[in-house]
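Sat 14:20. Reprocessing the chain from the morning session after the first attempt stalled halfway. Input below, unchanged.
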Amino acid sequence: MTSSPPSAHWSLIIIGTGFAGLSLALQRMNGRQEDFIVLEQAQSPGGTWRDNRYPGCACDVPSHLYSLSGAPPWDWQRKYAEAPDIEAYLAHLAHSLGSRIRYRAQVTSASWQAHKQLWQVELNDGSCLTCRFLVAGVGPLSEPAWPDFPGVENFTGPLLHTARWSKNQDLKGQRVGLIGTGASAIQVGPALAPEVAQLIIFQRTAPWVVDRKDHPYTPGIRRLLRTSPFLRRAYRTWLYFTRELKGLAFLRPNLMRKIEAYVRRDLTHKVVNPRLRQKIMPKTPMGCKRILLSDTWWSTLEFPHVTLETDPIHHIEATHLVTETGTRYALDALVLATGFRYQDNPMARLFKGEEGITLEEFWKEQRSAYLGMMMPSFPNFFLLTGPFSGLGHNSIVFMIECQTRWIQSALAHVAALGKSEFKVRAQAYAAFTNEMNRRSKNSLWMQGCQSWYLDPEGRNTALWPGLSLSYWWRTRRFNAQDFEYA
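Finished this time. C-alpha cells:
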C-alpha cells in the first residue's frame, strides 16, 4: 500500500518552530483545530536556540518564565537556562506535533492570490502549498549582521559569527579577536577566555552590565517545581512581576538614573584597575540600549591575557587586525558578535501582499504592525514578534502567548462571520503607528543611543513602549471594528 501524498492546501500554515510557531501550533492542537501545518527550513526545531551554538550561549530571562505557560512542566536545571537545554525543551514540544511539522521546508516566497483569497507558499524543493491564513513565526532576530570592515574577506583564519557557530570549532590555545560587546559577546567572551592563549575584545560602545545572579537549582527545588503546579505557577508569577516592575524605569528616566548611579558604584568597587574601569564605564544613559546580564564579564576583562581595545577598527588583513591608530593584532581566529539584521531583515522580501507589494516595500516608510502582528495590504497574514512587540525588561514568551491567543480569537471571529478574508483597516494601522511613535518619544530608547531598536530616522520600531501588562490588556480581545472583511 502506498501512502497518500501530503496535502497541498491547508486552512493555516505556520512558518518556524521557535517559541512563536510552536506556541500557536500547540494551541491549535489543544483546541482540536488540526487543519494546519508548520514549515521549518532546518532539519530540527528550535529556531534561534538551534542556530546559536556559540560557547556560553544562554538566556537572560529566567527559565521558568522563558517557557510556555500552558505546556507540560520542564525540569529546568538552572535559573537561567543554557542554549542546549532550551533547544531540548523546544524539541520536546515539537515532538508532540508529530507530522504537523514539515522539516527541510524552506519558504522561498509567499504571495497573496486575491482572486482565490488564498496565500500561495513556494518551497525550496519546488513544491507549492496554499492556505487561507498564513502566520510567520520566523523571528525578528534571525539573519546575522556581518560587518563590512575593509579586508575582512582576506582573513585566513576561522571567521565565526556567534549566530552561525561551527559545531566542532576548537579555539583552544589560539589568539582570538572578539568584535563586539553586546549580548552574545558578554557570554562567548567569558566562555572562551579560559581556553584561548590571548583574547582581544574590540569595543565600540561600553555596555551597561548588571549581575545575572545565576545558579543551579538543587535537586529538591527541581522536584518541587516539577511536581507542584501551585508552586510552579507562584514562582513564575513572582518572576514575572519582579521584572515587570523593572519596566517602569524604561518609561521614567528619573527612576532609571537612580539605578544607573547604583550600577556605577558597583562597577567602581568591583573593577580595581582604573584604566580598565574608565574604558568600561558606559557613556550612554542606562536603558537606551539593551541592559546586559552577566556574572563574569567584568572579571574576564581583568585576566592578564585579555585585552579590551577601544580604538576603532581600521582594516583587517590575512592574519592581523589593524586599528585606526595603527596598532596591529596578530590573530588566529576572529569571532563576530555583531548581532542581527533587524531593520533590513531580508525576510521581509519573501512576503507579497495585494498587488504584489512586498513587506519590505510596504515598510519603506516605517516598520510597523498593528499590535505587532498585522499590516494593511496583507490580508489573512500575521507576524509573530513583529514591530513594537519586543521587550527590554521581561519575557518575550509572554508577548508571544498574548499574540497567539489574539490570533486564535481573530480566526474564530472570521469563521463565525463566515468570511474568507480580513485585513486591518488602514486608519487603524496608522492610528496604532502614530500612538507607538508618540509613546516611544518619552522612552529611554530614544535618548541619544544608536541601537538596533531604532530605524534610520531614529524611531523605535522594535519594542513595546509600555509594560507587558498593557500589551496583554490590548490583546485580551479582538476589536472587530478595526478590520475589513470579504
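The first strand starts at residue 9 and ends at 15.
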